[in-house]
Design a protein that fits this description.
Blueprint: H1 12-18, E1 42-46, E2 49-52, H2 53-71, H3 77-82, H4 85-105, H5 112-120, H6 134-143, H7 148-166, H8 176-187, E3 188-198, H9 210-219, E4 229-238, H10 239-243, H11 250-259, E5 265-266, E6 269-277, H12 280-291, H13 296-304, H14 308-311, E7 312-317, H15 323-329, E8 341-343, E9 346-356, E10 359-360, H16 363-395, H17 400-406, E11 412-417, H18 437-441, E12 453-455, E13 459-469, H19 480-508, H20 513-519, E14 525-526, E15 530-531, H21 542-548, E16 556-560, E17 564-575, H22 581-610, E18 613-615, H23 617-623
Antiparallel strand pairs: 1-2, 1-18, 3-14, 3-15, 3-17, 4-11, 4-13, 5-10, 6-7, 6-9, 8-9, 12-13, 16-17
Helix pairs in contact: 2-4, 4-7, 5-7, 8-22, 11-16, 12-13
Amino acid sequence: MLSYLRDSVNSWTVRILAGVLILSFAVWGIGDIFRSSDRAVVVAKIGQIEINGKEFSQQFGRQTKEISKYLGADLDAEKARKLGFIDETIGGLTARALFTNAAMDLGLTVNDKLVRDWIKNDENFHDEFGEFSEFLFRELTYESGYSEDSYVEGTRQDIARDQLLNSISVNFRPPGDILNALASFRSEQREAETFTLQFDKMKDLKDPKEETLLAYYSKNKEKFKKPQYRKISTISVNARDLVGNIKISQDKITELYEDKKETFISPERRFAEQIIFDEESNAKKALEKISQGNDFYKVAKEIAGQNKEETSLGWNEKENMPDDIASVVFDLKKGSTSRIHKTDFGWHIFRVTDIEAEQKKSLDQVQDSLRIELASEKAVEELYELIEKVQDEIGGGASLEEAAASLDLKLMQISSIDSKGKDDNGKEVPKIPKFRFLDEVFKEKEKNLTDLIETDDDGFFIARVDKIIPEVIPSYEEAQEKIKNAWIKEQQEKKAQNIAKKTIKRIKNGESFQDIAQEMNLKTKASKTFSRLDHSEAEIPTPLISKLFDLDKDDVTMYKGDEGYIITQVTKIGSSGSFSEEDLEQVNLQIQKSISKDLITGYAEVLRKRYKIQIYDRLIDDLI
């Protein structure tokens, strides 16, 4: 799916039982979707769920990008493989598929209305007027590599899976001594100074002799291998390309507005909170305290053991709440508290903190988005007419060049492209179709045409393989410049490492951090105060942050970053001071999440024994 993650679902049963504790499953990458398609390579099958190659590649790409950012250095596929991130990616997708299987077997279903509302309320798909835009929805899902149908079905699976996982959440508060100790650990602070021995500043290297470069080349030939490239000619059209040229009359826009008028009405919404009690006596005690002017959240904590987050029911429309609860909540004035209300779950006190009145969008407010919607529908019709025309041209013996000229279409020519979509300079080839294009052009022989392929995002392409350039290890003469550059880079890194080690030793022997930096004509940089959890403004790589909390004041360490070795000295150790109730509550929530994650991990192990897991390692290797 898109890069954002869905954290929770509007399940009233879960809300009442477990409050609104939101679990974080980033370690498993939850938030994307599963798609099963006979058009893609299946790299794993878990129970009823298939994981295809595109999904694996996208998830792996996202993870390596995040890890590279974390490490402060680029991480290529080979390094990722050695560090185990390929296994981690497939493991995360497998875990998610296990939960989806479990949700399906438990009969956790999600109706079309909830899925539709979920997507329509997603601000990522809202236009400049705050309205859901069908065109924007199609555009963003396409850019993320998914079709409209697969995104909708994936959202349905996400919601069902979240219902299952949210039911495993816990509400537990450790003893005060433990909370204080953990809060103290979290609040510990550091300040540091750094300077960097940049690799590219390492000069005075001796020019390598011919035999040195030859030996380096002989030992590292695989580093310089060129992949297979193909020269391609293609006609590629998407319905999005046609939208701008389609004219829509005002009468058609007005007619659509009248047909969809009800969808432009936003019903009244209320932001509600609740305290829930096991015993009526406690509910009465709480209501009396609130009536006397005591703070709602304080009463919730003292009598029901609920923190502020757990009281929140969020924004709600009347039709989305159980009838008996809706009748209470929607009878309250803003800022008022209900009487005690009994349900099967216990005794409730509700409060409404904000109210949004019903709103209706005028034609003027939505006509631009309606125009795009109508143009998009018309574009799809014109696309299929164009497909027929292209098929007629090619079927009649026309070449791609002749078909493009006859139908006034652009013939795109790609001078070189590899199986990952990059040219011979290692750059992404722009404007190629995202669906099936690479698979199709890399299975054809030289001079052959692919079939005309209709893509999942309302488009099509047809391509010809003009030339195949086989993968090859270039000769020493051909790669001499790259060989020399690679050798120089390696020597620069070694020299920087040696200087870094000597620098650390000098500082430990009592020389000044500042004086040594000045001697090297390097600028020092003082960090802002940072903690273990909050170090975004320190401008220090995360792994180095962890090392600094193992050091005492004035201790020094070194770290290999992407651009050079970072020499760092701890200049100050402190603490944020005393802990507020809010600080302790944050620690408590973190513990709850940690325990919940452990429960979910255990549940995943049970599911591994229940569902058959098939991982096709060879196919995964082919993708990397």
